[in-house]
Write a structure and sequence with these properties.
Elements lengths: L1 H20 L19 H9 L2 H14 L1 H16 L4 H29 L3 H20 L5 H15 L5 H18 L2
Helix pairs in contact: 3-8, 4-5, 5-7, 6-7
Amino acid sequence: HLLCLLLALFGFLLTLLLFLFIRNRPPKQHRIVYLELPHNFKRTGKLLFRNLQLWLIFIYTGILYAPIPTLGSFWGVFYLQTRGFDKPLAALITSMLWVGFAVGAPLIGKIADATQRKLPCLTLCPFLGFFFSLFLLYFSANNQYLLMALFLGIGFASAGQVLSFPLIAENTFKKFHTLLMSG
């Protein structure tokens, strides 16, 4: 019950901070550009469908996000139960995936924005996820804190998929812009 109370308090504080610091409107010095969609949707669809860069981003995102629902929702608790943990403790350990994702998503986005380079984050996250996953599978000790750290690390690494959204937007905008300029 104490953990639930602490999580509720954390959620309340996070909501309060978001309410106080997140702006509803962009600053006035930023210019908003509205993209008008072309009338030829079939041509647009073909153009986007043939964009290899978008396909690579989709595949990357799917692979990087896959551990979250598979371990976090489907197999994580059962896997830990086979290692001897009771269901509540297995669920607590598994929930660290979501915590890692929740912490990692804004942090990775902030790092990529601050450095103006997405590629280092895009390459580091899968390697981290692979390393943590291998360690989880082949580490035989049942130390709950180490397992929590591993699940946290897998969730953090999976959060690298958030960088795919600006990449998709950038690639899509380029293709739409090309289509609009060509008629």
